[in-house]
Amino acid sequence: MSERQGISRRGLLGAAGAAVATGVAGYAAHSALTTEESQAADNSGPVEFHGAHQAGIVTPAQDRLHFATFDVTATKRDAVVSLLKEWTAAAALMTAGRDIGQYGAVNGPGEAPPEDTGEAVGLPPARLTLTIGFGPSFFVDAKGNDRFGLKAKRPGALVDLPHFIGDNLDPNRSGGDIAVQACSDDPQVAVHAIRNLARIGFGTTVVRYSQLGFGRTSSTSRAQTTPRNLFGFKDGTNNLKLEDTTKLEEQLWVQPEDGPDWMVGGSYLVSRRIRMTIEIWDRTSLGEQEQIIGRGKGTGAPLGKADEFDPIDFNAKTSDGTPKLAADSHVRLAHPQFNKGAELLRRGYNFVDGSDGLGRLDAGLFFLAYQRDPRKQFVPIQQQLSRSDAMNEYIRHVGSGIFACPPGVAAGSFWGEKLFS
Ligand SMILES: C=CC1=C(C)c2cc3[nH]c(cc4nc(cc5[nH]c(cc1n2)c(C)c5CCC(=O)O)C(CCC(=O)O)=C4C)c(C)c3C=C
Ligand SMILES: [Fe+2]
């Protein structure tokens, strides 16, 4: 492994001497941070990279996303292991707000390309988290070949997602051997992180697709206010939250009895690029919009209730006997009561990728959901939604992915180490 050090982005000029190991042999950063300091609530601070679970799952959702999937072009298992080691070291540095490499962006020799691309110089860590996951094609290729000797380690829960009614998936925005979710409160920090991982991966991986997102569409902590999606509704009210520790074990983290061993403490990510036909939505009456979602647009309260966090009463009727919540409303169909208790930790982002040449915004929700077992959670919920959700008239699923996200990285280890041991 090559010798690399991290350069403090804020103290760049005087930084070269102060190296403190990040935990990955041969790599160094410049300061040891306590967990409390690392997870400081302010939007500029760092989030601790190492831990029992990967950061970026229950971490209070940051405001910006850069999500990318990569295909592995290398054919040798050792090359993949080397890449994961290099990526882990770089991720630990970037999340601590440091340049990657021994000399970083601007202190290297003039004859060589800089080790760090440089656009984050001077920027704080901005709560950057980097979360990795492995897709089905990482384990077996399209012909069923055992690419890296990992076929037997593919988790049963890492299913190929079935076709859902209405799916219009673009293969160029779907799948991928490896996914990296970069979240930060500064878009440039998130972009810098993915760009530098892609750069490290030259010759081993290629970017399959990437997606920028803004305005987190979920809250993952009770300390956060609920944001709004591009339909203008509060999104994330009835989400799993980091404070729900018992539920997180039941619904989010892979347990020892689930197996495989290398996934215990990890979680499964389903990504869906969902286009929203917002021009049509914007011509829909307020009353109909609220019926479709099943909540009030202003308060976010269940229909017939006053407060956002009031429990939903699915039996409530108006004076003429009609149910206050339509049978095909989104929240009714997605609610655990109608899905054998299944819940998700939603962590999606809004996106607007310009317009589509036909005068319509290419806009929507980049849906990200973490769970313990997609066979019991995302798949049945989405099967029910795809059949009956009143919202289907206004949305189209155009991209899809499923990834096994291993547990957190201990100091001295690397992303997915147990998978390769
Ligand atoms: C398969 C899972 C889900 C998909 C896909 C999905 C798409 C989607 N959702 C909204 C907007 C809202 N969703 C809300 C709640 C909600 N959605 C899901 C699942 C999927 N949504 C769940 C499990 C829930 C919680 C249901 C409950 O227990 O009450 C809400 C209400 C606010 C909230 O609780 O978060 C909104 C609004 C859009 C726009 C969308 C696709 C574009
Ligand atoms: Fe939803």
Distance between the termini: 18 Å
DSSP strand content: 15-25%
Name the overall outline.
Answer: globular
Taken in chain order, the helices and strands follow as EEEEHEHEEHEHEHEHHHEEEHEH
Helix- and strand-based class? alpha+beta
What do these coordinates show?
With 421 residues, the chain is an alpha+beta fold. The chain is 19% helix and 20% strand. It contains ten helices and 14 strands. It has helices at residues 35-38, 77-95, 136-139, 187-200, 245-251, 278-281, 286-293, 330-334, 378-388, 417-420, and strands spanning 4-5, 7-8, 20-21, 27-29, 64-72, 98-99, 129-134, 178-184, 205-216, 267-276, 345-346, 349-355, 361-371, 395-405. The strands form three sheets. Strands 5, 7, 8, 9, 10, 11, 12, 13 and 14 form a nine-stranded antiparallel β-sheet that branches. A hairpin with a 5-residue loop joins strand 3 (20-21) and strand 4 (27-29). Helix 2 (77-95) runs antiparallel to helix 4. The radius of gyration is 22 Å and the shape is globular. The relative contact order is 0.18. Mean pLDDT is 91; it is low at 13-40. Ligand L6N33NVT binds at residues 229, 231, 233-239, 272, 274, 276, 293, 295, 330-331, 334-336, 344, 364-365, 367, 378, 381-382, 385, 395.
